[in-house]
Design goal:
Blueprint lengths: L8 H36 L4 E7 L10 H9 L6 H14 L9 H5 L8 H23 L8 E6 L8 H9 L6 E5 L6 H14 L7 E7 L12 H9 L4 E7 L10 E10 L4 H5 L1 E5 L5 E5 L3 H20 L2 H17 L5 H8 L12 E4 L4 H10 L4 H14 L6 H11 L8 E8 L3 E9 L24 H6 L7 H8 L4 H8 L1
Parallel strand pairs: 2-3, 2-4, 9-10
Antiparallel strand pairs: 1-5, 1-6, 4-5, 6-11, 7-8, 10-11
Helix pairs in contact: 3-8, 13-14, 14-15
Length: 498
Amino acid sequence: MYNPVKPPPAMDTIFSFSFFIGVYLLFSVSYIVCRLYRLWTAAGTRACYLIDYACFKPGDERKLPTTLCGDIVKRNKILGVQEYKFMVKVVVNSGIGEETYAPRNMIFGEDELRPMLADGIEEMDECFVGTLDELFRKTKVMPEEIDVLVVNVSMFSPAPSLAARIINRYKMREDIKVFNLSGMGCSASLIAVDLVNNLFQACRGKRKKAVVVSSESISLSWYNGKDKSMMLGNCLFRSGGCSMLLTNDPLLRKRAKCVLGILVRTHLGAEDDAYNCCLETEDKEGVPGFFLGKNLPKAATKSFILNLKSLVPKILPLKTILLLGAEKLLQSITRKVVATKNVKTANAGRTINLKSGVQHFCLHPGGAAVIEAVGRSLKLNAHDLEPSRMTLHRFGNTSASSLWYVLGYMEGKRRLKKNDKVLMISFGAGFKCNSCTWEVLRDLDDADVWKDCIDRYPEVKTGNPFLEEYGWINDEDAETQFDIRMRRSPEKTKATST
């Protein structure tokens, strides 16, 4: 009988050891590859990409020409000559044009405006549906793909929440992460972006899509009294909104418009003057409205300066920072050996040029005075301020969504080129100043809501229609004309004026 030759015991041991080493190396290499892949994936998903956004443009029936503005103001029967003079002055100097939009209840309402809950719901639904339908169409993303939803509307917070209304309409997933922000004011949009970005950082390599919906309720915020500090809101705020799609998925980078850079938030709520300068409250007669106090410019300036102190070192090139540091060191040495007069002259010698790190400036169009003040602080020229000025003229102050109309203007004018940096700055009640930078990933040319009017901007001012229509309020016989034009008796006019 044939018996095969058995290998020597030493050869058997060597074979077993080699097999063990091979298996060990295979598992080790596999583990290292998987670990490196996870690290690469995690690093890739730490970015926050702006895929696209859609601003809200109501129908022409909601536009506010000069004559209609006057008709709406006439509904407030307690206003006198002095209140009309104040409102005309504010509107004339506001930088707002004749094509802004108002809620339907303000335009088609009765003589005495009494907003109802249904008016606010209708206003929000129209904005949400208009922007989200357009956003999903442009991005070809389905509502059920959304992992995070953030809605910010400051002045209207019903139950169920506005975010819940969106989920109900678009039948989003039951595991979607939902946040409904209120009371954040005109800076809420960047707060929502910061919230999404922080969620992306905590995802640990998971790829997510987030939608931010930013708007404001004007229909429920109309002030029917005669306190001048609370009448400002009626003159400045207009209807608008925007929806944005954000993601941390590196595979969608080629489709993205921008990637988020630095985001800085400053809050002065601990200071009483800053906290109370923008406040939803009631006047002495118990009429609710939004109060804008005299301390507002001071609070805005302080929050802006503090915000820039944190932002500037993060966005300027290293060369510029080194030059500023060397100059600061030289000044501290010189201060000890030269006269005080010469020191002041030396300190005023150099100003920080943000244009060395940023090419475009997206400033909150809260009013002509706000734009001019920020422009002077940053040493910006007319070209830099044009997008914010024209947004204010065409759409007015749409609160938190205003920044995205400004960005849309830049796109419509084809200013945004690959690798450009955009700086966004916004202010809000609290008092807050928030800022962020975006890096443009490709040349952008989508005019969005500006497509039908971008060619006639920048608009050259040839006169103010509000002043032409209501300039008589500044005449010597203003009270007599007021009686005639407003169809009121002289006795009633005297009573309301006093």
